């Protein structure tokens, strides 16, 4: 009888043999009954790529089927997809379909094109923004009045010359309009009239009349009116005052000769009878320097304005004069004779107007000639003195001549130094650099100050400019000392101001006794006024006897004194 151990061994052997002989695979376990399946990283990567590729293909196929369904008319049978590589059959344009089924937002955005019809191009435009280009600013270079550029000097002087007539008369638009409207009304009504234009010299009266004459002739031609005859004359060119009537008659009747008295009678007869005045053109008479016609009895002046009162007169008279009070002197008499003229006053130019006219004269030049402050100084001084534009032009030309003299002097010094010491390269180089700097220089404020001082000379300014240096320093110290509310001071206090200026400018001062003597000399010349009965000279009162502006204006052309007065 076999034992239990043998039975166990046999059973194990039989089980092993049964397993080897049975080819049936073991039963597969379900995932639900086991732990989750774990894949290696390589397998996960392969699965994900395959899945994405499969999904993309499915998605593309669904889209094509949806489009085919929308394009067909009720036929829902799926058609075979055509490949683009199949070039055997040409592509046919798809007909306009009915509204498509709504797509997802992602697919709609991917399928639409970037065109101007759907409005997407303004959000997804691929155009590059254009770069901002700054407008070009024309910067004028400084002029060079030396050597081959001397032609520039001549052009600038011509632009500022009195004989150069500008194309437009600046700052006189209101006056020109009044004169033009007056002349237009006379021509339209075929009626005579008179106008008296007065103002200070250099206020643009003659230029304005010349401009009005051109505008009136153009207006008459464009408006269909008969162009008037124009007679311009300067009364200072007349041999006799009565010759003005001969000039007017010669314009009406060129071949008729007569003397002054006979001409006046013929003109009176011409303007009194209708038969003689018929067919005669209107005549514009511009009489400049009218105050030259004033005689003792003023008969010529009265007879001239009386010509406009005759019933068939064809005369438009415009008288121009510098005397502002001339109208007050002869208008009452003319009013009693029923021939009172229209009076137009030309005011003096202001600082801004003078500056604007100067700038307009220079704006056509392709280079800068003046420093802005130099032109402003000229405009301010001329406007404060007289407002005469002609004087401002002359001063500007004089300032240019100051610069020209300075450049000529520097050139002479350079030539002389080169001849005397031709081997000094350092001095020659420094002189050349100075000349090169001055070649591109402009008219500075010191040039303009010298030109102004020469134009507006006064005995006080001449006296100050001729003083010795230390007396000029005393005048500068007095001007600075009395710049505030003080009206007078002692000689001792004035000496302190004098010593302060000498210390700041590094010049050796004079002694107190000599200072007191110089104050007495200035008192004798009327520049300072000493008062007081004190025996001590330092305790005497001193007052500035001239205007502070005269001292400043007389000495500001010298840099040393300009520094003292600051």
Q: Helicity range of the residues?
A: 40-55%
The low-pLDDT segments are 1-9, 15-27, 29-50, 69-79, 85-89, 108-137, 434-439
Strand order of the largest sheet: 2-3-4-1-5
How far is the N terminus from the C terminus? 147 Å
Q: Main sheet, how many strands, which sense, barrel?
A: 5 strands, parallel
Pairing-aware structural class of the strands and helices?
alpha/beta
- Overall pLDDT: 75
Radius of gyration: 52 Å
**Number of discrete helical segments:** 23
Which geometry do the CA atoms define? elongated
Number of strands: 8
Taken as a percent bin, the fraction of beta residues is: 5-15%
Detailed description of the structure:
- This protein is α/β, with parallel strands linked by helices and 566 residues long.
- 53% of the residues lie in helices and 7% in strands.
- It has a five-stranded parallel sheet, with helices on both faces. It has a three-stranded antiparallel sheet with strand order 6-8-7.
- β3 (283-288), α11 and β4 form a beta-alpha-beta unit.
- The longest helix is centred in the C-terminal third of the chain and has 32 residues, at 389-420.
- It is elongated, with a radius of gyration of 52 Å.
- It starts with a helix and ends with a helix.
